[in-house]
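Forwarding the complex inputs:
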Amino acid sequence: MPTSPLRLGIAGLGTVGAGVVDIVQRQGDLIAARAGRPVTISAVSARDRTRNRPVDVSSYAWEDDPAALAARDDVDVLVEVMGGSDGPAMAATEAAIAAGKDIVTANKALLALHGQRLALAAEAAGRTIRFEAAVAGGIPVIKALSEGLAGNAITRVMGVMNGTCNYILTRMENAGLPYDTVFEEARSLGYLEADPTLDVGGIDAGHKLALLAAVAFGARVDFAGVAIEGIERITIEDIRHAADMGFRVKLLGVAQMTGRGLECRMSPCLVPADSPLGQLQGGTNMVVLEGDAVGQIVLRGAGAGAGPTASAVMADVIDLARGIRVPTFGQPAATLAAPRAAASAAPAPHYLRMALVDKPGALAKIAAVLGDAGVSIDRMRQYAHQGSAAPVLIVTHRTTRAALDEAIAAMPGTGVLAEPPVALRIETV
Amino acid sequence: MPTSPLRLGIAGLGTVGAGVVDIVQRQGDLIAARAGRPVTISAVSARDRTRNRPVDVSSYAWEDDPAALAARDDVDVLVEVMGGSDGPAMAATEAAIAAGKDIVTANKALLALHGQRLALAAEAAGRTIRFEAAVAGGIPVIKALSEGLAGNAITRVMGVMNGTCNYILTRMENAGLPYDTVFEEARSLGYLEADPTLDVGGIDAGHKLALLAAVAFGARVDFAGVAIEGIERITIEDIRHAADMGFRVKLLGVAQMTGRGLECRMSPCLVPADSPLGQLQGGTNMVVLEGDAVGQIVLRGAGAGAGPTASAVMADVIDLARGIRVPTFGQPAATLAAPRAAASAAPAPHYLRMALVDKPGALAKIAAVLGDAGVSIDRMRQYAHQGSAAPVLIVTHRTTRAALDEAIAAMPGTGVLAEPPVALRIETV
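Prediction (whole assembly, two chains):
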C-alpha cells in the first residue's frame, strides 16, 4: 500500500462538492488514520469561479474545464459531482478514464444511461468508477449490497429513494392537503429539481433503481427496462382510503429476479402502514435488501443534502485510498449478464378505488366483472353516498395486472361507474 | 490480484459453520464471479467427527485440533466459528496468526476480551482479523461503520443487539406475561445460551457494543469499560406503564464520545414507542449509527441464525478474496487510542415508577425530594389506588443519574414509599 497522499480533483462545487471539500478540510487526521495515508485536494472546477462558496478553495488549482481537471498529473481520482447525463460530466468522466484515473461520482443519470460502457472502459484501463453517493444519499447501500451481502443470491431489492416524493406523500397524509398544494409547497421550499418531472415523475428514483438492480443481479444497467410511473395522479382520497385499509402510499422501487426475467418497477404502491417502509416519514430514504442467506436487511437514512451525500463520496474515496478496488457493479462489467426484462410484473394483491352510481345491484355488477376476469376479492368496503356516487374500496387477492386491467376495461360497460377507477399495486414487505 | 482459489479452513461445524459450508457449496459460481476467484474449503474441524450434520463435509480434510487446521499449508484463511473467549478458539486464532493466515471470526467474546492483543499480532504479521459476524448477525454493520461512514466523525452508536432479550421484552408486552414466564418460554424454544446470563444479563450484547465502540471511536477494545445491566429486573408493570407514557423498554447499547471520555452502556432503556428502535419487535436486531456528516443511519436485520451469520462470515471471506484488507478495528491496532472511559453517563431524562402509600401530601413529599436533588419533573401520572398504594409515574427532565440516585436515596425518609422505586434512563433517539 502506498503511503503517499491520494490526490483528488473535484469537478463541481455545488452542495455536494462543497460538502466533500468541507470533510477533507475538517477531518484530515481522522481520514489519514483510517485510510493509512492522507487524502488531499489538488484542483477544483466549477462553472463560476467567482461565486461565493461556503468553503475556501483558494489553495487548490482551478480548472475551468472539468476534462482538463480530470487529466491533471497531480490528480489521482476524479470526484464528479456536477450531475447531468452527458455534457461536461460525460466529458470529464471520459477524460479521467483516458488518463487512467479512478472516478468517484454522485451522478445517477450518467451511470443509469451510460454506466455499462463507462465501467467497461474504466475496467479495461485498470481503473474503477464508484458511485455510493448516487443511490440513497448517505446510506451505504451499494457497499452493503456488493460487499456486505456478497455471499447471498439477492432475491429482491426495494426502496423509497426520492425524498421529495416521500415528503409530498407523507405531507399530504399528515396535513390532509391535496397534491397540487403540497407540490407547490415543496417547490417553494426548494425540494424539487429544476425539472420537477425528475422527482415526481419517478425518473430520478428510476435511475437509482436501475443501478441497484445491476449490482443486485449481476446484470447490465438497463434504465430503459425500468417501468416508471410517477406520483402525479395520487389523490388525497387515495391516501385516506388506503390508510382506512391499513396501508400507506409510497413511490416504491422494486427489482426482483423471477422466472420470467428481471422485473424493475418504480411506481406508487401500497405497503402495510406498520411495516418499516410504511412508517417512513418525510424526506428520509429506505432500502430493503433481501438475500437467500441473510433474509431481509433494512437500511434507513438521509437520501440527500450536503453532509450525507459527501459522506458517501468520501466512503468511496477512502476505499480507493485503502486500495479497495471493487468493480463498479460488484463484478467486472464484461461479465454482467445481458438484461432480460420480465414482460410483466409478478402477481400481487391490488387496491382498487371506485365511485359507483346509486343504482340497485351496482356493486354486484362490479364484482361480476372482476370475477369474469379471474380477479378475486379479499376485502371490500363501501362508504356512504357522497352526492350521487358511493366510494367503494376493494383489496384483491393476488392477481396479475393484466387480469385486473381486463376487469377495469370491462367496468364502463356496466353503467354503474361514476368515474374511472384507480388501481394501485400492494407490495408485500 | 491472484486468481487462484482462496482456501478456507473452517473450525467449528455448528449452526454457523454448517451455514458457511452451505453457502460455499451452493453459491460457488456467484462468489467466484463477485470475488474474481473461487473460494474453496480445504479442511474442517469440530469436536465430534461422527455427528450427523446438515451439510456433507466428507470431501474436506479433517483435523481434530483446530490449531493444526489453522496451520495447514492448504489453508489461506481460518474461519473460526467455535466460540468461547479462550480455549480452542484462542489456540486456533494464535496458531493462524503464527502461520501467517488471515482470520474470519464470529467470536464476539474472544475479541471483546483479547481483540487488541490479537489484532496487534495479526497486523504485525501482515494479516487481519475480520469479525462482521460477531456483531448484529447478518447486518453488515462493521462494514457500514468502518468503510461506509469512514468520512465521518462518529458521534454515537446505539443498538439492540441481543435478539433473545428483545424477544422476551416484546413478548412480555404483547402477551401481557411476566418476565419469569417468558424467560422459561424462551428457554424451551432454545433461544437462550447454555448460560442464560450471557443473554439476559447483557454480557453478549456488551461484548458486541465494546467491538462497535472500538471501530466507531478508534479506541482500544475495552469490555471492562462497558457498564452492563441486564433485563432480569424488568417487570410487566414497567413495560405497561412505559407504554402508557409513549415508550418501550429495550436492552439498548449506547456508545458515545463526550467531553468526559467514552461512554459505553448496555442497559434497559426507554425509547419512544414510535421510533425505529421502539418499533423493533421480536428477535430482530437494529443498530443506529450517527456521524457528523451523514446524520443518522439505521440498520435492521436478523441478529442470529445459520443463514444471517454465515452471510456475514462470507462477506469477510469475499473481501479477503477480493484483496480488501481493512485493519480489524478500522485503523491499525497500534494506532488505537487508550480507552478513556467516562466516569458517568451523560444527563438524560429518566422514567421513575413508584408506589406511594395512601396519605395526604405523599406526592408533594416525593416532588420535594426530587426538587432538593435538582431533578425537575416533565410529566407525572398517578393511578387509582391498588390496595393501600397508588402507582405513580414520573418522567423527569434531563438529569444526571447521580442527582436522581440522591433523590432516590432520600425517598425512604419521606415515609410515603410503599416499595423501592424503579428508575430507567430514557434514551433520545
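Chain A touches chain B through 60 residues (CB under 8 Å).
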